[in-house]
Amino acid sequence: MSHEEAQKAQKAVRIEIDRDELEATMRREKEELERTWARPTGLLGWFTDTDHKAIAKRYIVTAFIFFIFGGIEAALMRIQLMRPDNHFLSPDKYNQIFTVHGTTMMFLFAVPIMTALGIYLVPLMVGARDVAFPRVNLFGYFVYLIGGILLYTSFILNTGPDAGWFAYVPLSGPAFSPGKRVDVWAQMITFTEISALAGAIVVIGTAFKMRAPGMTLNRIPLFVWAQVVTSFMIIFAMPSVMLASGFLASDRLIDTHFFNPAEGGDAILYQHLFWFFGHPEVYIIFIPALGFISPIIVAFSRRKIFGYVAMVLSLISTAFIGFGLWVHHMFATPIPQMGQSLFTAASMIIAIPSGVQIFCWIATLWGSKLNIKTPLLFVLGFFAIFILGGLTGVMLASVPLDLQIHDTFFVVAHLHYVLIGGSVFPLFGGFYYWFPKWTGRMLSEWAGRLNFWLMFIGFNLVFFPMHKLGLNGMPRRVYTYLPETGWGTLNLVASIGAFILATGVLVFIINVIWARYAGAVAGDNPWGADSLEWATTSPPPNYNFHNLPVVQGRYPIWQATADAPVVRGLSTTKRETLVTSVMDAQPELRFEIPGPSIWPVLVSLSAAVMFIAGIFTPWAILIGAILAGIALTCWFFGDPNYENKTARETGERSEPAMPAPELRPKEV
Amino acid sequence: MSTRAVIDISKLPHHQFDTYDPVWWGNNLLLAIETSMFAILIATYFYLRQNFPEWPPPVAQLTATLKPLPQLGYGTANTILLLMSCAPMVLTDISARRGNRGVSQIGLVIAVMCAAGAVVLRGFEFSAMYFRWDSNAYGSVVWFLLGMHMMHLCILTTEAVLLAIWIFTREYDMKHRVDIVTLAIYWYWVTAIWLILYPIIYFTPRLG
């Protein structure tokens, strides 16, 4: 279609409608939409359902269960460190537990849950019926689930990885880590990174091509911007860890020598590859959280965001600079001094875009009549904690100081301030904020406040003393310490804090269970918020919107005129969705997206054969590849419910599916 | 009677080539992932090279020391074959855009034969290296480079075969014409990546 035609299609026309006819048509369409977008039921339905909301909810629940597992591991470590010379855990168990804790929190909780919120909310926020690639989305979930099950099965079987969440060689290499523990880690990485990559493509495709007419680039909600920026970071960062874990696995399995200095390999190469992913990873976890904060602040200060363009540019520049920081994790390796200075500078520069955003939020909040509810409390908690974490980050960027406190509890304190403050607090704010949309019910405000204060006080009690412990020289990843070190008191304080923090999480879980059954009914838009996910029912119907909306401003609900136009002409009997142009969201195509299918889960099972059996024999790669090839071939050919069958049956492809006769547009 | 403003999209097409179609975006984003993978792999190649006084490491024969440079024959043949395969692919690409089924079929068949030939030649390329993957770090990284590219050659060939089967046995509809155009992008990309890898693997060691 030419640009002119596209523009013509973009122009709204007025149609005459008869009230009674309208109601009848709406009812009929609603029934058709319900039928077309019906979700499969039963056990098989669980494996084939491609509804983005169902997948996202599963992602959220799964990731939250892993969060609880990771939390239990943290509690076990805190019990072990509570007093000097404790023998609650053996050194070997302790090694496994801190490795699995870190791995779980980074790969099985933080990244997936951020993607999950994106998968739920991006299509709703841009006004689409589903994501761009629903089956890829489903595939991503199963791959992630298999990776998580692999890690925990092996952990229960006492084969949990034990070389730290970044598994440095030579410790993790074949010479020093015989057995299969590190292989489990390497393959689990492969699963989660495939899942993250699938999620990234789904999010970008949706945000670029499925936006409602009128949602030009400069009207995209900041949440969606954050998700898009994160997805691009995933695309450029994940291949690096794929190679790192792939090289490691092949060094261990088929005797390659990537990291073996005796044959010209290089242990520092592993650190480069890992941290070229690992540092952007921090931002992959952090940037989506920034995307939760903006809508919460807008909704509860009842104001437009201050400095929208500056906010978007900050997100993008954070992503770019985030790729130039990885060496600051390696200051204790022989890096040329010039290189060290460069990475120190970059590590300090990245404080600027983060600062810009914080000031924009403060400017938005400043002088507004704040509606302080739990989501906003968590955001305010984020400010306090994250700024502290940011300050220690600037300290760690300085090489002499970093060398002094490298691998001490100071680093542990810093990373938890940044990750829990920067991600988990906004995430909990996001839970409270969007829970009504997901379930149709409100979480208890009273329990929410209790939850917040327990978590806030508990968190600071656990991690603030760790700064001092680190400065006093307590190393991380050591299972116990002697009484003479004098670290006992602060460790006891930290352990008490851990239990307060855990109580806070428990309050949240109880709140969720209670609210599912007895929470106040939320209604469509309980917070009076501005973005499109609040323009549909809570929870949204399977097809998200009856008529796709037309966006008239950056704050679609607040700026909608009384007679806002809607999109007409999508089929109600096929899974059609509107595809629009990347820049201006001009309508381009009526695109039929695929529905429920069994093949994604079978492809992910083939991947499981490939990588899990690949721990034991390289032939599994070949067998898994063949199985995946077969499954993908069937995915490509065999699909009775998708458009080619329909086309063959009707014998016609380009029939205008809609509008219904009584709603045919007439220029008035 | 009252009125309501609507945007009527009932006349919009279902499919369109290039940036219009979500599939184009999905495919190109996957290629972005793989491009960054190859970029990091190439960086690894040069990083490891720093550890070797001579690259590739010399092999001590009975009397003389041999510099085991990779043999040029198969790699060069493969480069030429891949470049040649782009011709039928361009033909397929253009015919898919124009809706010429016969030309698409012929082009796709020729292209598939070229790609299959490239996979076979790649098998010989491995043997043209003096080292196995487990000989030393040089062998490891070169096998990985060749292997990763071979994986893409295999996927490309399979995808082309499947599309060919479709357009021979089923309808030549817009959806699959868009797929063919997308396949062509993948094809050019695999060739382009090889045009970068070929001089790196075969000629940078010869530069000294």
Largest sheet: number of strands, sense, barrel closure of chain B = 2 strands, antiparallel
Name the chain pair whose interface involves the most residues.
A-B, 84 and 56 residues
SSE string of chain A, helices as H and strands as E: HEHHHHHHHHHHHHHHHHHEEEHHH
- Mean pLDDT of chain B equals 91
Describe the structure.
The complex is a heterodimer of chains A (668) and B (208). By secondary structure, chain A is mostly helical. Chain A has 21 helices and four strands. A two-stranded antiparallel sheet of chain A has the order 3-4. In chain A, helix 6 runs antiparallel to helix 7. The longest helix of chain A has 36 residues, at 91-126. The radius of gyration of chain A is 26 Å and the shape is globular. The two termini of chain A are 26 Å apart. Chain B has 208 residues and is mainly alpha-helical. Chain B is 69% helix and 5% strand. Chain B has helices spanning 22-49, 72-98, 101-127, 137-169, 174-202; strands spanning 2-8, 59-60, 65-66. The termini of chain B are far apart. The relative contact order of chain B is 0.16. Classes of the chains: A mainly alpha (668), B mainly alpha (208). At the A-B interface, strand 1, helix 7, helix 8, helix 9 and strand 2 of A face strand 1, helix 1 and helix 4 of B. Strand 1 (13-17) of chain A pairs antiparallel with strand 1 (2-8) of chain B, so a sheet runs across the interface.
